[in-house]
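Feature request, filed as a ticket because there's no other form

It would be nice if the structure record came with a short human-readable summary line next to the tokens. Right now we just get the raw output. Example of a typical job, pasted below so the devs can see what we mean:
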Amino acid sequence: MRFPSAALLALGAMVVAAATAAAIVVAVPAEVPAALRTAAPTSTVRVTERTDADERQVQLALATGAPRAVVTSRTGTVTTSTCSTGAPVRSGDVLARVDGRPVIALASDEPLWRDLELGDRGADVTGLQRELTRLGAGLSIDGVLGPGTLRAAHQFLLDRGVDRDDLPDDVVPRDPFAWVPAAENAVLACVAVVGAAVGADGVLVELPAELRGARIEALPVDPAPGERVLRIGNADIPIDDAGVVSSPTDLAAISALPEYAATVASADGAPTVAATWTLSRPRTVQVVPPTALWDLEGDRACVQPTTGRPLRVQVLGSELGQSFVRVPGGRTLDRIRAAPDRSSSCR
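Raw output as currently delivered:
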């Protein structure tokens, strides 16, 4: 009788071991990667808070008037100009030199129309005092050209390059000033050409047309209550409940914006500018999934806290799969059911 050789016995053992290992692999299923697992449904969610300004995109219709310009009474050759269509003209800045003499922008209440002598009175004196004070002079605004106003005006002109010999002792000369309608003014076109003579009309800079009124073309429906502003570029402009801007100060602020200048320059017909109509004071809202709301009626709905009875909430709006609500009485929600039992009501 022959016995199996040692080699055959070893081979048999390897086959048995391999079969056993295969059986174990089949019997123990591989673990599914976390990224491929099906998420267990969430039965409750934590309510979060955020601020909401109820921003609405609108078109602002602009009622414009006559063209405007920055004009000098100086005559001669333009030797320098600081004008740029990409930069505003600011009151107090030197905007050009004519025959080497500075021309200074000044946003007084009305254009200076005369040389002012010591003791002169009038609205032009008041406007000069008010603007010098805004620029740091700290004058008493009384409409009288007294010694204090005279000194402040002379110092203002000297600081901007006016020669002392061009300043009579008891006079504020008109020639160095060029009137501008606002402290900051958008530029429509630079007219003065360095090396050329000042034109017969004295125009150095063209400004956008005067803005006489502004109104939202179509007010959005169902706005959140509260005071609102118009956001144009980086500026917030007050607006009334009817969607109208009528304050001269607010209209001047709009007309000083580069967005206004660009709109007026390119408009074919009545100009409009894009704006955001937004709450001036954003409100705090609570954020819930839309599935958590039921029994909707108008702006009211129900939510179900994890404990207790259903609560009535005011629905304030929605955005990107989120609903914004507020509980009457200022109560704060913590956790609510994402898919509540809708058989009962909170009413």
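Something like this underneath would help us a lot:
Confidence is low (pLDDT under 50) at residues 1-29, 35-41.
Residues 282-337 form one domain.
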